[in-house]
Amino acid sequence: MKKLFQIPLGGLAIAGLAVGTCCAWLMGETVRPYDMVGVKFCPKTANVRKKNYEQAQRKLDKKYCQYEHKMLSEVWDKKQYEAIKPLPENSFIIRNIPGEKTTYWWYLVSIASVGGGVLAWAKKCEKIELAAHYELEGYKTQIKIFGVNSREERDFKTDTVRNQWVGMRLETGLISQDAVNERYKKQSEVQDATHAAALKQFDAGNSEMDKTIAENLRDAAKADKERVKLQGKGSASTTTNQSNDEIYLLQLIEALKAHEDGWIFDLINSVKPIFLIGDMGSAKTSMAVSLGLIREALGHRIHRIADKHLNGENSDKWNLLKAECRHDNNSSILEALQDQIERRGERINQRPTSKEQFILDEFTQLAKISKEANVLIPLFVTSTYSDTRKAKELFIGVTHSFTNASFGDGVFELRQRGWLIEKFSVNGETPIPRVVIRTGLKDLNGNNLEDVEKTLPSWFRPELIHGHFNDSPISFDNAG
Amino acid sequence: MIDFDSEEKEQSNYPTEEDTAFTNDEQEAIKEYKANLTKRINKHRSILKGFESAFWGITSYSFARFLILVSGSSALGFAVASVFLINNIVNRDCLDAFRLERNDAEWKVEGMGKLLKFVLTTIGTAFILWGSIGEFYHIYNNSNETYNNLTKTVEEFQALPQDDQNKLLIFSGIVAIAGLYIAIDSKRK
Question: Going by CATH, does the domain composed of A259-468 fall within 3.30.390.10?
Answer without folding.
Answer: no
